[in-house]
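Support request, priority: normal
Reporter: lab tech (M.K.)
Component: structure prediction queue

Hi team, I submitted a job for ATP-grasp domain-containing protein from Aquibacillus albus yesterday, and the status page still shows it as pending. I've pasted the exact input below so you can check whether something in the sequence is tripping the parser. The sequence length should be 427 residues. Please let me know if I need to resubmit or if it's stuck on your end.
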Amino acid sequence: MIVPQKFYKDFQSIQTIKYGPYESSVECFAHHKDRQTLYISSKLKSEINLANNKKISLNVEAYSCTISLVLGVLIAGFHSNDLLLGARTELFRKMSNVGKELGYETIFFGHQHILSKQNKIYAYYLHENEWKQGTFDFPTVVYNRIPNRKTEHHPNVIRAKKLIETNGTLFNRGFFNKWEIYEWLMRSNESSYLLPESILHPSKQKIIQLLETDSLYIKPVHGSRGEGIIKCRKLETSEIQCQYYRQNVPQMNRYTDPNAFFNQHFPNGLKGYVVQKEIPLLRKGASAIDFRVHVNKNHRNSWEVTLICAKFAGKGSLTTHVQRGGSLHLVEDLFSKDKAKRMKDKLSKTALKVSNTLENYLRQPVGEIGFDFGIDEEGKVWMFEANSKPGFSVYDHPKLNEKAATVFSYPYKFAFYLHNLQMNQTD
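Reply from support: The job had stalled in the queue. We restarted it manually and it finished. Here are the results:
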């Protein structure tokens, strides 16, 4: 690496150079040509995957220098108290510190922080473990962590996302549509066998027919985190028993008249709902178990499994969502060492297979997927949900929290891939 003579004294002790996840040894020399051009050999550029003829910023520390990068994170739910970035503030702090290890400055912002006239962002960033606010250019890559569908559909957020994509790349652009995911996976022999039988926009008559032989889950196509799910079954008394949530509190009702059930829960009809038969899952004691599997894209644009855990439903709850009383467990804590390994291997292979299948249909860059899988009493894997923005509640478990730093490194790795892709396209 050849640097301007003016800065040579700052570089003469440098032995390594870092660029995102890459690191290489380096020897520095000086040139007198000008004061701003830095020359890097083709061999070194190849080793650290650096694009040609680009403007870069370097951070020099002792015997190492790092090519600086910026990742934007689009969020919502800001507060004026100690939790400036909302309930996820401490996890975003951890994420920022992970980013610093990879040479990233992480800036957090909402739609209200975009200065459209100046084409800048007035964003939050972590400096010496304190949150500060400053003005930044639009990053080449932004990670979408808008927390819910309602906020995502706000006109100001929609405008913000369009502006971000005008200036760079936005990944995890939005929440998945459950029925689109189902249709895409049903088209492939690699994944269709994983899906429970599902019916979109079911009729009342179809639900009554299915209840003769099976318990059912009725879910909104655009729901997430268990919102709007209803579980129902027909009792020996011929009543329909249904479980659901009202303001996050589990409820249970019985109906002698099916029309009373439909009128209370689906007054506007069943358009926009999916019905699925209940699968007889593995149980521990009285609790059915399902599994959360996180997959993330790395800096080579390949999927990796980054986290697997088991989930129990809470008492009286119809889903395993932690926000609704569910509990998290390590697979190794529930099964023998050998059985846990076999189950995790099976879940990992399935998650990677489904991720690659979905990627054939997704028209947007997606850096992570959170899958909800079940394993039935015969050992068959079933896929219930694919989430484009897996929640952070898994890190409430102390052992899983220890994995958070590793999982948080992947958005930076994928952002590095997207950044370089953008840089190389503008050569």
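Residues 337-359 form the longest helix (23 residues). The mean pLDDT is 91. Let us know if anything else looks off. Ticket resolved.
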